[in-house]
Every structure is written in structure tokens, then in C-alpha cells.
Design a protein that fits this description.
This protein has 784 residues and is mainly beta. The protein is built from ten helices and 41 strands. The chain has a 22-stranded antiparallel beta barrel. A five-stranded mixed sheet has the order 8-13-14-9-10. The protein has a four-stranded antiparallel sheet with strand order 3-2-5-6. The two termini are 42 Å apart.
Length: 784
Amino acid sequence: MRSLVRACPLALLVTALPSAAVRPGAQAPTPPPSVAESRRTGTVSGRVVDRVSQRPIPDVRVTIAELDLEARSDANGGFTLRGVPAGTHRVRAVLVGYRPGLAPDVSVSAGYPAQVRFELQRLETTLAAVRVGSDAAALAPPPDAPVTTITLTADLVRRAPGALADVSRLVQSLPGVAAGNDQRNDIIARGGAPSENLFLIDGFEVPGINHFGAQGTSGGGIGMFHNELLAQATFHAGAFPSQYGNRLSAVLDLRQRDGDRERWRSQADMSLAGVGLIVEGPIGRRASVIASAREGYFGLLAGPFGLTAVPRTTNGQFRASWEPGAGHRVWLSAIAGRDAIDFESLATDLENLDPTGSEIVRGDRHMAGLGWQHPLGGRGVGRFTVSRSGLGYGEDVREARLGGARAWFNRSRESEVTAKYDLTMQLPGLGELNAGAVRRRLATRTRMEAPFGSFLPLAPSGRVNPFASDATTRGDVDGLHLQLSRAVGPAQVTAGVRADRFGMSEAVRVGPRIAAAFRVAPTLELTGGAGRYHQQVPLVYVAAIPRNRALPPMRADHAVVGLAWTPAPTLRVTLEAYEKRYADYPVSTDLPQFTLANAGDSYDVVGALVPLTARGVGRVRGLELFAQRQLVQGTYWQAAVSTTHSRQAALDGVLRRGAYDAPFSATVIAGRRVRQRWDLSTRASWAAGRPTTPVRTDLSTAQQRLVLDAMRLNEDRSADYLRVDVRAERRVALGGRTLAVYLDVQNVTNRRNVAGFDWNSKTNRLAFTEQAGLLPVLGLNLKF
């Protein structure tokens, strides 16, 4: 499925001010704006709750730092700020005894409300007076995840150049996440394969949030998650808390916003991901709903213009939330998408590196979940969630050199039903307790056929491993976790343990985890974390080859140490060093140099469907520097510099350079907001080239296909990756509506970055493929 790399859309298209006193628990006396003013202003509304108990907090002072606007939360924790000028603002929530809350990027549109939910952390009495007025404290990560945690907002994702409003692509700009492939949005965190990442939406586990995601991995060509529904994204690059299980590397936790509770509203948008519509509004007084639908416009143009090899995508999202009272909350969330593309490689098309023939690709993915949150005696909450997710894959490849016979066929489905209960409680004198249990029911229906075998680049002769699979495989992954977080003098310490049973192999694994943040100065913290993590081998490798079903879970041990410096209320700088050690990784029994640790960032899966054994080991070490300045006085920026040294060993036991080794990478994003109407931003990325393996030219010529020198695996490196993107957005108020139009110009220097190489069987020569050149993308959003 190498064609999809060239056919994805990126390549296919080339401190608060004084105000009047307010009664405790009452709304601030902010008068409603005039009719004319309301057409140029909007509102900011939301709720303030206790982070642990989720109970509403009254009398919280909510302000917009740069404006003379203030409100106080009412008895239900609700607040509304009216007459807020259109643009992006910093909203603070302050109450003595709690760590202040800060929403740094609240985007307000004329006639369209912005929603903010503050979950305030109660402070120790001795610390309250010191921290209560500090934005720096509000910018700190959650107390149970003091290391390698970064929070992103919808506005930050939207205005990031080159990200195309795709949260995964913005995550690629964060420290320790490998960059260098424009065609895919894989998250390669600290040298870990994309299959090692956990994705969640509103607390429900999701197998992937992308179109054209290959089986056994998580990335893809086009993001499915609609950014306009995003409330907050939290990214853990490693050493994450014990409530997250069954993954080795990283966690991307997405939380959707609730629908508007005042009246029904809509918005329409057009972007590279397609043409979309969002509808939201109240259901009675205590419930709301928000839903989106989006259709890829490449598919809409295919028929009228007679286009071929066009990616066709459709996706939708949904969230409904109901608060019946007495601290209870019920929510329903869903996401679904499907995609398709057809290829035909002609003998006369010498630039198409695929063998002459045809390929039909179909895919679908979905998740639906129901959650219930209930109070636990005023000291905490319990959350029960149940969800179902599924993936469908379809491929039919025929090759002319086989007489038009089918070379590869795949009609497979994977599903997961999950039931989970978590509780969070404040225990007097002990700290914050988090505990829970989860049961996952995994199933896969595998119909695969490679009757002639596959050309594996590491195999020196012909097609290998012909196979056919028509089977149903089921298994459970059950887990328990327990965690306690508390202040110990000037330090915040979190210790936990997780135990999991992996039903397919009947293996039980225990993983202790610990993290701490020690305040050595008012603006400086020493942080650290460590833990053991386990993960079920991706189902496709287990189900396709019967002997692989006994594979034990993979393992990774994390260790992180760092410094966090907050020299100003809007600026945070972190420096972290880490090491990850892998064990029990699946490796090929027939190809001594092949390990799954080096796979997962391509659209092909058939080449990795080989007999495996859990004898792979590896080591990744790195250093990361990250600085982020929040939007203030019209300017914002962030810079990330990383070095990642990866070594992986397969069956032969030789530690070789890993496929995701990145000795140097740097990304800078900077932007300027002009009069709350224009957003101008740029991003520059530079990374060392990806590891490559020398080509056996003699064997490749003789066999008319790519043959690599397996003994020199990843010894070479491609040319460095360099790309500069610019973005300009203009917002216009149109009689109570807001229109935003943007131009995102990617790769403005038109640099020809290398995407990869393959053997052209038509010309019988080595050929290189390039990533997208200069690509202007026009988009718009209309809120009404």
C-alpha cells in the first residue's frame, strides 16, 4: 500500500483588574451589551468545580486579565462573562485555598459563546497564601503527572501552522516526538513505535483517531477528530500515571466540550480534512448535545472531474451531557469514520513505484461510550464507563506480473468492549487516592490471504511466508490500579501500582510507578518519574499467524528526571532526560534482524505478518528542552529541541540503530495577533534524517524488487528534514456571526524532503520518493 503515501491529501494537492464587589455565590453585575455591541462581542460561560470531588465551587472570582470584566460563580459553580470582545483571551479563576485556574487560550466569537470548565485543586493551608495569585501555579501540570505532561487547547491547535487543525500533527511539534513525515500524523514518542500510544476521548479508549490508519498501528494520513469540539488535550510523553494501561510509550487524552446550554447554534467549516457542519444546543435545562459531520471534499470532486486515486473520507462526532443533580453526571460520546481509495498502476507510468496492477483499499473505525459520574460522600467521585470500539480493514491487491492474480487480500475486523470503574477521593491526612478496575474484551475476525507470499526487503531471495488466515480470535485484558498522591514538605509525590492480566497469553504483569516534583525555589522545580509498562501485542500479528497467539505482553521501563522553570507567569521552560528499556518485544524467527519495534509508521502490514517470538530488547535515551510562552500582549511562541538515541535488538541479539533514532530535532512555532482580527504565525522544523538500510543493488536488479543489506540495518541516514510553514487568518464579524478565513502555506521554501525509497520494478532502478512541496491550503469557518 505504498501508493497511499503519495496519494494522501498533503501530497495529492501539493492578573485581574479591580471591579465592583459581588455578593458571595451571586453573578457579577456585568450589564448586557447593547444590540450593536453584541454583534461585535461574545460571552464566556462555564462552571468551576473541585478537581477531586467534582462538586461546584461558589464565589470563585473569574476574570479576564486584560479587560475590566469579572464574574463570581454561583451556587452551582456557574458563571458568565458578557460583552467580551471577539478574539482570544486569558480567563482566570481564583479562590483562596485553591490553586488558581487559568484558561490561556479562550477563543470568543461574535454572537457565539465560549465555554470554560475550571477544575480547581485544593491547596494545603500552608501553601495557599503563597500560591493563590500565581498564574505560574496554574500553568503547572497535574499533581499526579509532574513530568512529561503538556496541555493543549483547541485555539492552540487551530492557529498552529502546518497542523491543519489536527491535534496529532501539533503533537508532532512537541519535544521528544519525532517529525519528518509530512504524509502521516504518527506520534513517535521518545523512540517508541506508533502502536505503543494510547488515545482517549472523554475517558473512553479509542484505537485510533485517523483515516487510513494501517492495521496494528495508530497513525494515518488524515485526522478524524474535529478540533472545534475539543475542550482540552493532555499529552503524556512517558512515565504516565497508573490509571493508564496497556500501552508502552505515550498517552493522548482528549476531552470534548459540552454543547451550548442557552440556545441552538451551528457552524460550518472547510479545511483539508473536508467540508463539515457542527450543530449544538440545549436539551431541557440540564442537558446539552453537540454533533459534527464532515465529508472529504476530494471525494466530492472525484465524480464531476473524473479524478482517480482520490481519498474519500467521511466522519462524525457526538457528545451529549446531562447533569440530573446531586453531583451526578452522565455523558455519551461517539466518533466514527470511513475511508476508501483505489489505485491503478500502469506499465507506462514509470514514476509509479508500485508494481503494475491494481489496489482497492477500504477502512472504517468507530467508538461509542456511555459514562456516569457520581459523588462519594463529598470527598470524591466515582466514574463508571462502558464503551465499544471497532476497526475494519479491506485491501485487494492484484499484480500483473502474477498474471493479474490476487497478491494480497484482507477483510478483517477488530473490536474491543471495555467496562471500567475509577474513583478519586481525598483522604484526610493521606492525600488523593485514585483506584480502579477495567475489563476489556478483545476480538478479531481475520480473513487474510497472501497466496504467493510477500517480498520482504530484509529477505534476500524471492517471496516468503505465503499464508492464509480465516479465524476468529478472542481474549481479555483485565487491570487493577491504585495510586496515592500527596504533598510531602515542599514536594508533591505520587506513587502507584498497576496489575494486568493478558488473557491471550494468560500472563499476569505488575507495574509499579512513581513521580515527584520538588520545589527548590519559588519558580524552580526538580521533577522525576519512573515506572514499568506492559502492552498486549497488536491483534493483527497475533491473529494472522497461529503460532503468535502465545506471545506474552511487551514491556518497557521508563525513567525521567528534569527541571521545570517558570520565570514569568506566562512562560514555562522544562529540561528532561529520560531512558526507556524494552523487553519481550516480538521479533521474527526467520529474519534475525527484524523487530516490530522498527515497524508501524507505514501503510503496509503484510510485510510484518511473520512468525514471531518475544526475544526483542531495546534501549532509548534522550534529552529534551521545551519552552512555551502563552499568548499575551498579542505574541506567543514555543520551541522544542530534542535528541533521541534508539537501539533495538532482534533475534540475533545485536543492538542496532532503531528506526526512530533521531539524534537531533527542533521545532519553533511563533505567532502574532493583530487587533484581535488577524492571526499571523509560522513554524520551522529541522530534524536529522531517518535511519536507512543500504540497498543490495545486485540482488535488487536480479529480482526486480527492493532487497536491503540486513547485516547493515539502519547504518545509513537520509538527508536532513527541513520545513517552514506560514499561516494567516482573518476574522470578520457579520451581523452577529463570525467568519474566519485562513491561508496555510506549507513548505514555503518548496524543499524536496525525502519521503523514502523503493525499487522501481518498471525501470529496474532505485527510486526516491519526495514529500509534499509548496502547498497552499485555504480554509474557512462560519459560526452562526
